[in-house]
């Protein structure tokens, strides 16, 4: 009990001093306190991503893939469920949700393997991470949740995308 009381006092002191120091310090202090008391929002585990495209993927053409790190729940709810909707609205969404999402875009030629691709900025603090894959003729390709596995391979086949979770 004494340990939790000490933490509570320390938390209050941290918050008070952080309030005097500025917003970024305050956010850091709040994150620390949330971690201590178990209220920390979920964070993405994704650290490694590999992209593979078959020779006949997307009619043997390059495949557009966007990896979107989502930093809050409201933004996650605002994002489209399908890849076709994402690519139609991408510029507007990147503008309206600029502070809440980070996007890393790729154009991967057919028959390629890209290991350990660059992930969106601050992915480790993301609330969720999604992959949008633009395949010709596949208007209903859904967003692919790649938040929690530490290492993922996205395998783009002729008319299908497979998520492979790696150990």
UniProtKB/TrEMBL annotation:
UniProt keywords (A-Z) are: Signal
Does the UniProt entry include the keyword Signal? yes
As given in the record, the signal peptide range reads 1-21
Listed name of the protein: Lipoprotein
Q: Which organism is it from?
A: Hylemonella gracilis ATCC 19624
